[in-house]
Amino acid sequence: MSEAPAIRFTNVTKQYASRALSHVGAKGLVTRFPEFVKRAKHPVFVALRDVSFEIKRGECFAVIGLNGAGKSTTLALIARVMRPTLGTIETRGHICPLLELGAGFHPDLTGRENILLNGVLLGMTKREVRQKSGMILDFAGLGAFIDEPLRTYSAGMTARLGFSVAVHLDPDILLIDEILAVGDVTFQAKCIDRIGEFRRRGVTFVIVSHDTQMVRTSCDRAMLLYGGSVHMNDEANKVADEYLRLVGAAAVVPQVPGGSRQTEPKPAAEVATLQA
Prior knowledge:
Radius of gyration: 21 Å
Structural class: alpha/beta
Shape: globular
CATH class of the largest domain: Alpha Beta
Mean pLDDT: 81
Distance between the termini: 53 Å
Number of strands: 11
Number of helices: 10
Strand content: 15-25%
Order of helices and strands: EHHEEHEEHHHEHEHEEHEEH
């Protein structure tokens, strides 16, 4: 009997009510009337449509796609930040979502103080955070800034601190949303090395990234979302190739509102001809 997957989506659909024009006022209604009529015809935005997939325990799985394809929504559903409109989601093990680094940080506290705050918010005890604080400080590499208020940090420094706290947790499933671009090349290499350590421990990874090279070298499989649906689910190399083809096709094949596709992407040779 095969081992149960770490994550399973079964016919998952996620819809959002379209409220973008709900508070535009009388003047706004007049000036944006065509947009209002268009949205009235499509009152619901479908972020994901009938999505099914499984991720094995210990697997590194990438979710890739064009902007608005439903990648971050997929991670938020796994993290149970939101619930599906239709379908079922099963997860097994402790989930650590790195979806918004630094969420819960206080701008008036120092970096050192925010380590304690963020660690507790992510599920560690104060004692555990204090025991790991030396390793967290070393990983972040912020030097004297660690004792400065967070409001003096750049966005990249804040992200580095958030990542440094999160990777010192003990997760079974780690969700990563476009955060490996934080910091300089040296810090990025440290992030990749830490992912390697987690993989050797059997941690399951779900990564959203536009970095196809990272997907090829770090991931076992990948799923390509297009217009809220699964376009491809296969070996990481094959999916990365198809994603790059879609990126090239995006200029001539627009996605339409509502999470649906207008037409199938054109063959790569035809796209090259159109772009020439």
